[in-house]
Structure formats: structure tokens, C-alpha cells
Amino acid sequence: MPSIPHIGSLPAGKRNAITDVPGVAVGHRTLDDHGVQTGVTVVRPHGGDPFRDKVPAAAVVLNGFGKSVGLVQVEELGVLETPIALTNTFSVGTVATAQIRSCVAANPESGRSLPTVNPLVFECNDGFLNDIQRLAVTEADYLQALAGAGADFEQGSVGAGRGMSSFQLKGGIGSASRRVPARHGGVHTVGALVLANYGRLPQLVLAGQAVGGHLATQLASHGAAPEPEKGSIIMLVATDAPLDARQLRRLALRAGAGLARTGSVFGHGSGDIALAFSTAYTVPDRVERPMPAMAMLHDGLLDEIFQAAADSTEQAIVHALWHATAVTGRDGHHRPALSELLPLSSFHSSFAGSRSSS
């Protein structure tokens, strides 16, 4: 297997992950038991209570074939007030309930003297590998993923990505980051995390190399039939640049550029959603607490931030495929890993000379 190609010209952060953005943490709970191949992934925007200290955010829906919870209020108010949870389609309700219980435990007056909480759960359908009708994910699984969140985390066939498929290969969790010079010194960091469960193999492009047709031929030789586009992808973009909700919506939209570079056309059956948030400041829950006095980044300085969002999203998708391991799940359904097929491809030598990601 060649080294992982580096997307774009901007440098990566220390971990090349969304957790290079200060304060962001990621945790997984993976369920791996024969026909049950699923899990939960949690992204914490900071180490405190987001119900008390909300995070500016915005989302865009590139194609709305999805069953997420919480997007309406995010669109209206422009803030997050829970960690972000990723799971399978049929577990959205359970995970949302877990988020509500977690908030009530920390804030007993939520829903009484305090406002109700807006849970935020994104999903993809892992039903090919996972017996999704088992409703295997529990509230305790969410809490375990939340408690285990940290700066270092696994990628590939883990957490919510355990049962996900991408381009008829094993998909899952991927993450990356890029660093952007700030105008008056220092740097801004942009990080992405994806739950990749989308794509038609003949269309796959990796770091500008159209490898999909060759890989599709390899799979076909082993009896795999072509499949329609019917998956989804969730793209999360974090930054420490001071942006408001309007600017964050523009940033989230640029994740779609990174997605498109991999060969996606946002197919009919695909739920393609991006959310961006900033850790530069928080919004207090009570009117008695002072609002932050923060100078937002000028719109004229956003181009490299946009580039970082597109590049880190594309890199995160590459990482999801690169780090995924093969999984056999429900009824013997199997997804091979990219690592099993790419060394056999004629494009192997093309990647061997690529700049490695750091």
C-alpha cells in the first residue's frame, strides 16, 4: 500500500484530524457482533457544557435524503447546544434521547425553568452490513462514546462508521486538518470529520487519480455487481477562526467541493449534509451573562479558509477509505477495504510518488 496522498498545498495540523482545532474531541463506541456492525461517534466542540456555552454553527443540505435531528433549530439560531452525534438511521431517536438525558442530568431545570435542549444527531444507513432492524445502539453507547472523547481517536471501520460502505468498499470515519496563515500573524486551523457511506465505484477519484474504473473491474471479476448511488455522507467542519453563523454556512458549503472531487454527484438516494462550527467563542445561555466581544474575520479573508475546508474534507474522505478494514456483517454481506484492492491497481505507482500526509 502506498503512502497516503496529501490533498492540496496547505499544511496539515499535528494530528491531521479535526481535533487539531483546539478544544475539539472525538469519541467512538463500536458494536461488532456478527450481524450487528454499527456504533456511535461523538464530536465535542469544547470541554464544557454546550447547553450553557453554545457554539456558533451552521449547516447546509446538499441532498436531503436523510433523517437527521436538530437541523431546523441550528438553521434558525445558528448555535450548537449539544455535542454532535453520528450513528445509523434507525438509532437517531435513541441517541437523541441520550443527548437529552445527558443535558438534563447536567442541567436539571432544562425543559422547566430553562429552555429545552436541541439534540443534534446525524445518520447514514449502514443496513447492508448491519442488521439495522435490531436497533442495537443504546443510550449507554452514546454515553460511552461521549465519555471516551479525546484528541486522539481511530479512523476507518469504527464508531458510527463500523457498518458504512463507500464506493462499494468499506467506508466509515475519516478526519483531516489544514493550517491557514492569519493576516496578522499566527494561524487558523480548519478540521474536518466525515461519516462516509456514499458513492459509485466507477466514479471514485483519489487525489485526482480516477481509480474507480480499474477497481470496479477488479470487483466485477470477483462477482460483484454494480450498485446505484444510495448512500450518504455527513461532513463536519471545525475551525478556530472567528466566524459568525452566516460565514459558517458558507464554510460548510465548501465541504461539498471536497466531496465532489472524490467523484460524488450528490445522487438521488444520497443524504449529503455538511455542518461547520467555530471554537473561537461561545454564546452564553442566560441573558444575564455578557455576550462575547469578538471581531469576526473579514469576508475578504475567507478564501484560504474555504480552501482548507474543501481540502480537509477531501482528505478526510481519503482517510476514511484508507484506514477502513474489511467487514463481513448481516447475512454474510461483505465490503472489502481499499487497502486490499489498491496495491493491485495500475494506479499504485501514481500514489507511491505522492506527498505523504502528516
TrEMBL record:
Highest rank taxon of the organism: Bacteria
MF GO annotations: aminopeptidase activity
SUPFAM superfamilies attached to this UniProt entry: DmpA/ArgJ-like
Xref: InterPro entries: ArgJ-like_dom_sf, Peptidase_S58_DmpA
Gene3D superfamilies: L-amino peptidase D-ALA esterase/amidase
Pfam families: Peptidase_S58
Coiled-coil features, chain-numbered ranges: none
UniProt xrefs under PANTHER family: BLR5678 PROTEIN, D-AMINOPEPTIDASE
Family: Belongs to the peptidase S58 family.
Official protein name in the record: Peptidase family S58
